[in-house]
Prior knowledge:
Elements: E1 3-6, E2 9-16, E3 20-27, E4 35-37, E5 41-49, E6 52-56, E7 59-63, E8 68-71, E9 77-80, E10 87-95, E11 103-107, E12 119-120
Amino acid sequence: MEHGERPWGTYTVLEENKNYKIKRIEVNPGQRLSLQMHHHRSEHWIVVSGSARVTCGDREFIVNVNESTFIPIGAQHRLENRGVIPLTIIEVQSGEYLGEDDIVRFKDDYQRCENNGETLP
Length: 121
């Protein structure tokens, strides 16, 4: 099972197939992922613990436990934990290509977008 540490928290790949990948993502309190988009995949986020502040396109909204949201291919999006407990989501990715290098970062708290919006690993 693939597991990764990131500045904002951790992720674990629960299942992976040719056309979909399922991850458990935990975002530490006060942290957020980069504002990003994907060329080849959509994502469905289900909150299982905590509360998520989600940016999708020009909308910002809250997703609570037992709620979900859909991120279409090509949409700029961000996941944020403004709470005091860890945020845990289940992410279901689907698309023709699910590699970690299909991330275009626009804004990042951890200086991971030095390429001005180009695809980063």
